[in-house]
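Write out the 3D structure for:
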Amino acid sequence: MTIAEQIEGMKRALTAPELAELLAVSEKTIYAHARANRIPSFKVGNAVRFDPKAVAVWLAGKNPSRSNQ
């Protein structure tokens, strides 16, 4: 199972720390990408959240080897 498939199967919005752990990057990187609109995100009050389905689509688009499948 790919990381995109794993994320897509999650039932609730992810926090930045959760997504950072799954993608093996820092929280700071996740927040920077969200702020620059390079990764799909939304805000709940002051908190940034990530829709698992949108992130999975984004990840699949970043992986050219999966684009022909």
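The first strand starts at residue 14 and ends at 15.
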